[in-house]
Amino acid sequence: MKHRIVVLGAGYAGATTAGRLAKRLRREDVTITLVNAEPDLVERVRLHQLATGQDLRPRPFSEMFAGTGVELRLAKVTAVDVDAKAVTVTTADGAEELVAYDTLVYALGSGWNDQGVPGTAQHAHEVSSRPGALRLRERLAALEAGGSVVVVGGGLTGLEAATEIAEARPDLDVALADRGTLGDWLSEKGRTHLRKVIDKLGITVHEHTAVAAVESDTIRTTDGTAVPAAVTIWTTGFAVHPLARATTLDVNEQGRIVVDSTMRSVSHPDVYAVGDAALAMGPGDKPLRMSCASGVPMAWQAADTIAARLTGGKLPKGSIRYFQQCISLGRKEGLIQFVTADDQAVDRALTGRMAARYKELICKSAAWGVANPTAGLPSRRRRVERQGTESPARVEAAA
């Protein structure tokens, strides 16, 4: 009987894991099922572009995984029973089906987090999903000149959304509300360049501003100030998919699955988690942040570990570290902030058009990497030694 591997979620992390496993294991020994609600890869790092009216290149999984042996199952995951080793999915026509597994890779990712602020869910827009970006695209297209747009959140997503909109629609009044100081995590060079671009684009910045409520045409700050906002875009962080919290998996207070250095659940050895859904520790014993920069290396680690454990190979020992933070500031400007292994800014940054080209290359390579998960590396498919089992010595060594 073939070993059944089921991957839930086909974002950068989930899709990369499935593709890499297909390159590592023999089709005669395993089945790899990738469950996802959409037939195409969502380039999440480009959703701010989609929101401003730009058309993104379609990246259908049917082409990416053609001839690999990965089976794409178009369905929404509605329940996970890690004790029965089964997943409940609902297809587009409403049919409910059960998918059994021997090894599960949980990669359902994250969505926007309204932080429980009154009115946010009803009145604000998000750019963490394709449907959300398309709704925002429609709303911005209908907004007349002089209309006010407020982006709440001064992190990477907020900066990219605000600058993209201001560049694409110079006729709009774009503002950014930041709880702290603009770019306070960047180096001095990075902060200086960011401020220069923000000023050039005419974006109003409300620093040290916390939002207490969102209304249909206004945001209200905690000090009682009303800021006009015909469109409010909420980018204050991410919340993981709630399904993991409903299982017996060991999760943290945010609902992220606690994993070891191989991305294996600390409570269920047949479950792995990658991407935003996983709580993995990086350099300095700090949690890896929710990002593509974390998710793709996590996918490599999980896929190589699963393959090694099934084939009796050597477990990977590489650690995940950071090198840079890449920020697009519209189509003509960018900022590449170089960082330490544990993601702290150093006194080096690339700015301007060169940085914009660099960021574009990173975005293209992220999508290309999904279809080429072992590029430049040996990809000999190995035979599974034991169907659904691992040697006691190997399990003990990995614990």
UniProtKB/TrEMBL annotation:
Its required cofactor(s), as named, are: FAD
Task: Cite the entry's keywords alphabetically.
Answer: FAD, Flavoprotein, Oxidoreductase
A biological process from GO: aerobic electron transport chain
UniProt keyword Ligase present: no
MF terms in GO: NAD(P)H dehydrogenase (quinone) activity
The segment(s) forming the FAD/NAD(P)-binding domain are 4-303
Q: Enumerate the Pfam families for this protein.
A: Pyr_redox_2 (PF07992)
Location of the region described as Disordered in the Swiss-Prot/TrEMBL record: 374-399
Superkingdom of origin? Bacteria
Family indicated by similarity: Belongs to the NADH dehydrogenase family.
- Name the UniProt record assigns to this protein: Putative oxidoreductase
| Species of provenance | Streptomyces davaonensis (strain DSM 101723 / JCM 4913 / KCC S-0913 / 768)
Task: Give the taxonomic lineage as stored in the record.
Answer: Bacteria, Bacillati, Actinomycetota, Actinomycetes, Kitasatosporales
